[in-house]
Amino acid sequence: MKKYISKLFTVFVSVLGLVSCADLDIPSDGRMTLNDIFMDYYSTRNYFNRCSDYMPQVGFSYENTPLASFCDEAHDASDGVSGAVNDWYNNRTSSSNNPLASGGDPWSRYFEGIRKCNTFLESINDPTVATANIDEEEKNGWIGEVYTLRAFYYLQLIKRYGGVPIIDAPYEITYDFSQDSRATFEACVDFILADCDRALEIPESSVSTIGFRWDISDNERGHVTRAFAYAVKSQAALYAASPLWYEQGSKYTWDKVTEITKEALDECLAHGFELFDITPNADIAQNAYAYYFINRSDPSRSVDKETIFETTSSRTNVWKYAGTPITEGALKAGAGPSQELVDAYGMQATGEMPVLGYFDASHLQPIINASAGYDPANPYEGRDPRFYASVYYNNSPRSLTTGNIDKDLFPLSFTSTINNITATKNGDEVTLATTGSDPWIFTTTLTRPLTAGDSRVVSFEYKSNKSITDSEFFFCVAGGPQGGVESGQNIHIPQASEWTRFEYDLTTAINTWGFGVNSSGGASPENHFLRFDVTGGAGYEITIRNFRIECFTLPPAPTPVETFVGGNCEISDRVNEITNTRTGYYMRKFNNYKSGVNVDQDGLMKIFRLGELYLNFAEAAYQSVGPDAAVPSTVGGSAMSARQAVNTIRERAEMPPLPAGLSESEFEVRYRNERQVEMAFEEHRFFDVRRWKILNETDGFVTGMKITQEGDSYTYTRIKLEDRGTNADKYLRYPIDQSEVSKMESYTGTSWQNPGW
Fold it and tell me: What is the CATH T-level fold of the domain 405-553, as seen in this structure?
């Protein structure tokens, strides 16, 4: 028997939301037909904007915890409280109770978005419906975005459920639902890539403010770009070739996926995307990686050139929902990073993984890598800088505030004593432009000796046209340069289009040369000055203001996060205690330590970023041509190997490169480890362990670290948390909501439910 549905020709809308004040010729009951909507520019544009309403607000969206709490990245301290976390950890997931749908059922959400996109695409391309006078390039831009959105919504569905029905048009009145079926994963990826290609085939507009573009302004936040379409293609193809979804004979071989992921990466690099590498001041963030994740992206990419798309409104609220007990206003400890995640962070000095696995099934006896330089008695020393940016561990500083006590300033200006450089003054700013090799300029003298203090730095604010990689300061007396930066310690000043603070610690120079303190070199301290060597050649331009030396005394060290038993943030196994960690760790990534009850400055999660594209390519390439073989570019970019792609990520993280000559299996271990730490808490690990089909190895339980203090020393004891039971094969896919399954079974006579549910 055929099942029919009536096509909805009228949609309920807000008059003020879809039409201007002058457009009042609508039915008195407030309804508008599609013809009414698409006959007007403003209502058409607003309908287009509604197509993006189904974009996920990624973050603490699973009953105030991240997706990380539902895989081996973390364990939420609400495990003893009724709710999504408790249901997941106690294996109470079913087709009628999916804890991962606590923020809204993904099946319904994304199909609603697809329906909205289908209606827009059919209507805008029907000249009998779309009668509004709209610039052709602007209209084509809307079409490109909606094709991309539809592809993205399908990607979200298939990575959760596997193959789903492909619906590319609004249902007609006489639509026969009995003919519906779930398409294969490969067919769905075909459809996703085709939609992205349709969007990318649309030429970029000749007008910079309209069309489907690479570059948008900050006030267009929430719009998808051409980079977004390439990111969708990259992830969809990668998933299609992964063990969970690949079927013998599929077109999505690793060769094919290498081609797709390399094109996506190359296109983004060719259009100005770069890994974020701005080094922050010590009182802002620990390193560039940490700084990136507490910053909000700027869609114009004036500063953040890495983010392709960021969740558009919801800050992560780490301070509140995964806060330490010493964080004012924190409601719970939330997602405590697992010991397995902590073990994944390598050693900075050697670049090696500290833990190679476990001797026992409970993960309590780690296999220590003897060549890594890891000390189990001091487990948090010398780790990957991303560890310090992502995890609060025992005795880590809760705050980075340094504060300044008795600060004394020594303003300096530039003189006319120069070499191969021009100096142009504009008010309080000076622009230095290099014209040849060895460019330098003198400053004025101190006029008085430097004051004593805990820290003395040369600082300034600047803008520059290029990154300066070999700048130097020489500490001078009347006779000329007295001493300077030690060989191999040349100073890096990153390119900056906006005013950026720079500082350089003078401690070594003062201790070595007595600069500004004594009369070493025959001149009294007040006659000391600096020679600023900008860089090694011509073509560099840097504008500087507030060039000075700062002397100040540091305040007492910030209160540490004490996770040891009895500490201010102690580990707890009390089921009714949700404010203390279960694992011995607290989540730090995305958390700005300045956040609290008065202001939330935590970062927003990235849905797509350039770092993922490097890793997607690396995964495809090492399985296609091996770790070291260079893959040529098809769009005029540079050839790159899988190892080079991973090492680009590691370089930003200040980690040593992976060595050449690793076998495919050796490289796979290092690659998966790299992906785990680089994209921790970003909603990748949950899906990665599934598509790799290693869920049975990773997600049965997690471990933590119980620390006891004995005088000035600590004892570290690994602990196993309760079994979750969420690593069975059925957990490889989401269950489809039972109401949807029952409805479609009544239409088609077959069950659409995923295996095991």
Answer: Jelly Rolls (2.60.120)
